[in-house]
Amino acid sequence: MRSEFTEKDLVTPAVSALQRRLAIAESRPGEPWSVLVENVPCWPEGTRPESRTAAPDSDAAPYFYAPSQGLPVLREAIARRECELSGSAVVHPSNIVVGAGGMHALGLVFRDSVARGYRKAVCQAPVFRGVHDAMLAAGLSVETLPLTGTAEDWDGLDLVCREPTVLYVNFPHNPTGATAAPGYPRFLSRFADTHDVLVVYDAVYDSFSFGPEFSAAPVDLAVNRTDVVVVNSMSKNYGRPGDRIGWITGHEETVGRLVPRLEWEAVSINSRAQQIAADIIGQGNAALVEGVRAGRDAIRQSATGHKLLDAPLPNGGTQLWLDLRMADVEAFADFALDEYRLVLTTSENYAPVIPGFIRFPTGLAPRMIREGLALLDRAMDAWEVRQRT
Fold first, then answer.
1. Quick one: pLDDT at residue 57?
2. I need a labelling partner for 106 at 20 to 30 A (CA). Which of 217, 234, 310, 330 fits?
């Protein structure tokens, strides 16, 4: 499956079906909503880390601009993290640029790529619609195709990367949870040696790899090469989307281009949020990862005889990509919203739209996962009766 989009596919901006359903739920706060939309994992009760930075009333952070590249204390914390998790031997704080979340970081890279002459992007299907639309808005045409995270991707990528191309790779993959093979960074390096590509590796789920083999994000490749960057954030890996802190790891030449661009666009990123992020990264996210593992166990316990959970769990990520086997999953999601107060994320949130799928979170408390699955079953049974009658 390949799908190509160009600037002509951009229409007047409109909120997604997901945001529309969330707005309906928020407008009726007195009703018992079950919101099963987030792939941001939740910290188990009693484990959420508290920031050890200065109290807000004595914090001077709001009264000064942070450096455009990011506070040194945060870049140092990120570099230590990448040494520990990604096994990097060469990353340094000078290789890191702090952005306002992962999407802002990706946007910076996409806009910089267009300034350098790139006009085309290739990414694995399906891709989060926000990433897809950010590419279009930057001036890139977009082509999607399935990627396996193995050397078998060579032939498919070779066919679509015959011109200067931004190659967007996301592992563990949102929404399928697929992970890359351990040798995939070497594959990407070899591919970049023979093709004019800028590899953008989205690692915002890299803490959540549960398979027998672990493939680290190619941080050292990004540090040593000007045609590879790695993007990460606090939202998924630390369960803190409200901080709006993300980062780019790259060669110092890449950093030298991105920092002025960030200064033009935003001057700098929230100082207090950066200080808190540095502290949280230092404390680690082990309890959060164990919370997702517990959610996966709850799904396994519910899988016996379940019509949707008959496939093995993916090796990574914080969600399941469930095929409801419905011709019109959007109509079903609206029905579930109206009749069962159940808010779902459908395949409309991704590009290309693959009919029939929803995203189900694994980063909730086990009780909420069991209750959510039961409510989804009830809604699907009622929908089937409605369709027959």
1. 41
2. 330
